[in-house]
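Protein modeling request. Please complete all fields; requests missing the sequence field cannot be processed.
Requester role: graduate student
Desired output: 3D structure, token encoding
Chains: 1
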Amino acid sequence: MPLDEDMKQLLAVIAPPGMPALTEVSVEQARANMGALMVAGELEPVGRVENRTFPGPAGDVPIRIYTPAGAGAHPALVYFHGGGWVLCNLDTHDGTCRSLCNQAGCVVVSVDYRLAPENKFPAAVDDCYAATRWVAEHAAELGVDAKRIAIGGDSAGGNLTACVALISRDRGGPRFVHQLLVYPVTDAKFDTPSYEENAEGYFLTRDAMRWFWNHYLRSDTDGANPYAAPLRAQDLSGLPPATVITAEFDPLRDEGEAYGARLRAAGVPTRIERYDGLIHGFFGMGAILAKAKGAVAMAAGELRESFGVS
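Delivered output (310 residues):
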């Protein structure tokens, strides 16, 4: 179907003609540009928000904990933000985490993992895996039910979610009740039909993805590591049930759906939902895009079901 009309108008704002490409600016400028683009509007209230740190593999890692209103041990979602492993932070994804906290009725722990190129693979995935262990081990302190922990993220955060699920299975824990994969990066290839169809003109470009991968990986060898490119994993059995969200006009569409299909083939209960007419990044646009708001609601519903929350 054609590009959604609301999406088309928004695309003209976030990627106007003549705007320098990501590959044409420094990492510092790219981070500043993305931060300005994702400035939050009116903040959605939640029960409580706390900024703190936990001891990670290479020093303290900042996290932001969103707790819904109400007493009792809540389920939890450990969330990894997108941004190509290079951009974004706790603030850029604050709105998404607030919405998931309220709609899924869970504590959300957002992780400010180390970014590339200063910290290349496997720094980010190591921090994210450590975060899940920390949440599981400190569940009582956080008001969390340790038996109802999910993981999730968008784009590079979806990649980190899939990789953490693999690592947790391979290392014997923690165990998760669900994995939320929002237009995840799953492979270091650029030759799928969706890469050809959406190489440029829809915010995320093929050249930008090459730029991200080049900053993230230490060498081409890392691109074959399933803890960097989970679609390369030989065995996807024994992983948590999954929700995979993709966008029609997204270079990453096909690799996300291919990963979802492989999860299903391995016996993992998996919902794959493509949002037609939309582009990469739409999930964080719920405040201004009706279809994005619906996608967040769907994701929250899948989480609630996995948590056993009516």
